[in-house]
Structure formats: C-alpha cells, structure tokens
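writing this on my phone so excuse typos. first protein, seq and then structure
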Amino acid sequence: MAAHFKTYLVGGAVRDRLLGLPVQDRDWVVVGASPQALIAAGYQAVGKDFPVFLHPHTHEEVALARTERKTAAGYHGFAFHAAPDVTLEQDLARRDLTINAMAEDDTGQVVDPYGGQRDIADRVLRHVSPAFAEDPVRILRLARFAARFADFTVAPETVALMRDMVAAGEVDALVAERVWQELSRGLMEAKPSRMFEVLREAGALQKLLPEVEALFGVPQPEAHHPEIDTGIHLLMVLDQCARLDAPLTVRYACLCHDLGKGTTRKEELPRHIAHEVRSEKLARQVSARWRVPNDCRELAELVAREHTHVHQSGGFGAEARLRLLERCDAWRRPQRFAELLWACECDARGRLGLEGRDYPQRQQLLDDLAATQQVDLAAVSAAALARGAQGPDIGRAVQRARLQALQAG
C-alpha cells in the first residue's frame, strides 16, 4: 500500500476483540488519501453516498476518513466531507458510542481518543459527542447494544441526551425501514428486554410503540401472573424467547401477544376479558406502522388471537383440539403452527418463579398435528365420493377421519 496514506481497523471489530468476543465484521478507514489516490493504488470505488472502495487484494470495503454535519431532520439529513486532511480522531468523533469509536493500526496498537477502553472496563454505553443527537437512529442502536451487552449500563448524560432528542421530535422523523431493522436486530440479541427498558427510559418507547408502553403499570391476576405488571411480564417473555433460542417471527409475536391488555377498561382490571381480539387488532396496527415482514406479521396476529386457547388446550377434548388446529390452518401451515406453540411456551414461562415450568401443551398439539397428518386425504375423499358425497360432505368426512385419528392417539 502506498506510504502516503494509512489504514486502520475501526469500530465493532476493535470493540469485540477487546471484549474477547469473536469478530464478525471488519470495517476499515483510510487516513490521508483522496479518492484519486486510492484509485491510482488499485482500489475500486463502490460508494454512492460517500467514498467507499474495495481493497485491491482483500476486496474488503475501506472508507475514506470523513466528517459529517447535520443538514436536515431525520436519518438522511447529513452532508459528508472526506479529504486527505481529515484526521482519524475526527472520523472517530462522528461515531455513536465510545466503545465503537476506537481504531487499531497495522501493529495492533489501539487508538482510543474518547475513552472506549475505560467504558468497556466500566461496562458503560456512552455517547462520543453531542453529535449523537443529530441521528435519531442512534437511540435505537444504543438500545440494541444494551440488549447485546446486557451487563452494560447507559451513562446518565447519554440518557438525558436521548430524552432531549425525543422531546425535540427527532424520533418522529425515523423511517419505518430503519426502525424495523433496529427493532428486529434488538429482538434477536441475548437479552431483548434491555432494548425496551432503554427505549422507555429515553421516552422513545411511547413514540415508537405506544401499545407496548401502555402495558406498564397494568395489573394482571396474581394467580396466573406472580409478576402482576403486564409490562414486566412482556419483558420476561422476550427474555424467555432468547433462552429458548426462538426465531425472529416468534420473538416479534411475543412482543405483540398481550397488547390488548393495555386497553382493558379500569373497571374490568385485573382481568382482561377478550384481550385477545384487541391484541390481534393492535398487532396488525404495529405491523403496518413499521412495515413488518409478512411472516412476522401473520404469526403475531395468530399468537395474539390463539395463545389463551393453546394455554387451555391441556383441558380440551379431541373435538376442541381439532377446532384449534383448524383455526390455525395447521395442516397447510405446519411450520407457522409450530412457531405459535413456541411463542406460547415463551409466554407461559415468562412469569415470576415459573421460568422453568413444563409446558406439555406444546408437545401435545404437535403430536395432534402429526396424528392428523397421517390421515390419507385422497382415500377418505375417494370413499366419500363413492358414497355419493359432494362438496361440504367430503370436508366433513375428512374432519371425522382427523377426529378419529386424534381420539385413537
């Protein structure tokens, strides 16, 4: 590489190495170069919004050191300046958190102008500079990091800054795609509850997910919910999702499963009669707002509507269990049905003192599905036709055969 510019490993790769974690992605910054100099050295330009190049040998992306300034509201309102005179410290200053604002040279020496190593040692998430306030996505990113690094606390001055950002309306400028990107990643972290705790503390949850904010302080019957508070229950369910290694579809469904409890009339508390119908409607509302993918959207509505029935299914007879399979479209959508049961187990175990409870309903209903899948639909239909059955009569014959399979099991 030409001697007049220098390349540094920056950001998450440096942070994760210092934390003793496997390094997933490596980001590089070049200091002291112009686009023309990099192209002359064999780099290939690929960036549209700002100068990014592919290394001629490793084909990894490298970015020119740059500064940025706020020009308009929201995520896209930035102007970038990349030039040979931009220093590494200036480039690192525009990053969000001190633990992400470190670099490493080719000898392994860490460049840490903003105290990232100290904050790693102290387990603190802290903004690098007041420029943090220029990008509202950073509130979501910080909350996601809190879910990943669950033993880190958020610096009080950073919480105060985020609250000021929310009060200034910055969060209102967020676009759906970026919100979903960060929420979905946070849901998949080791302790998803931390993301929502941090968003609440910053005042951002009320803006982004008022349906979730509304659950906090709402009581539930203590016999079923020793933790009582519906919001606390939700956080416990999300952490059970992580413990049970649930996929994103299940985690999002769990986020939405009890939203209707936030709209229960006060005179009906602590019971939540028909909250499932309200939860389904609110889940649909949240999914539309943040343009949630269809697989997550559909499962969330199904779980909201049916989770109570699944919980109660241990006391159902064969006919009621068959109706449950029918409502869930289990034969055409067996994977979605399995994810419904996964979400219901997370819900059942997301309760104070009941985290390790057995949940036999999940296996029972999976066994029921397997038993009914053994029914030879073609043979049943052919026999019904031979008897002169038509249309709905054939459907009823299939239903009877499936019921017999359940009863035999």
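second protein below, same order as before
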Amino acid sequence: MSLAASNFLIPNGTFFVVLIIFLIVLAVITKFVVPPIKKVLDERESIVAQTTENNRAATKKFDDARSQYEAEMKDARGEATGIRDEARAKGREHLEGMRKRATDESDKALSAATNDLRSEGEKAAEVAKGDVGDLASTLAARVLGTEGAKGRATSGTAG
C-alpha cells in the first residue's frame, strides 16, 4: 500500500467514484441541458436562414421595382419630350398665325394710309392748280409792272 499511496499514477477508489459522478453529471447535462440549448440554436439558425431568404427576395423585388421604375421613367421622359415638342410646334404655329395676322393688319393699315395720303395729295394738287392760276397772274402783273400788281405790292409791303 505504501507503493500505491505514494505513487499518484496508480488509481485508487476515489478516482472511480469521481469518474462515476462525472459520468452521471455528463448524462444529466446531455439529457436535460443540451436539448433545449440545441433547440434554441436550431431555431435561431432557422430564423437566420429565413431572414437571409427574405433579404434575397426583398433585394430581387427591389431590383425588379427599380428596373420597372427606370423603364417607366424612360417612357415618361420620351412622352414628355413628345408633349414638349408638340407644344413647341403649336406655339410656333400660333406665333406664325399671329405674325401673319399682324402683317396683314399692318399691310391694311399701310394701304389705307397710302390711299389717304394719295387722296389728300390729289386734293392738294387740285387746290394748288387752282392757286397756280392766281399766282401766275399776280406774278405776271408784277413782272410787267401793272397797276394791280403795284397796289398789291405796296399794300403787302406796307402791312
């Protein structure tokens, strides 16, 4: 015994008792503690997998929505460009119509003014023709030195 008691490598009864207690505690932990922990870990892993799948689906939906949005925006831009071009064309047509109307009104006003000036010029020419005869006789009398002209000349200079 002294050899067994002094040598720690030779097992004694205490070792076997501690080993049995360890195995019992290990069995209890394996039976009652590990399954709930394993269940929680499995649920957590399942939730993580589901979240990952949901993220993939959401990313796919987002990408689809973005591509649809961009396609619709492209169509809307094209439509807006068409509407803008159509509005510009209508504006040009309206502007051309206004210019044509203004030109027509201006031509009418110019024609009316020309006709008025022409008629007034003709009237002035007729009046001038009537006055030319009187002026010619007055001038002839002055040049010839007749008395009617002197009377007028003296009265015109005296006044």
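Residues 153-159 have pLDDT under 50 and may be disordered. thats all i got for now
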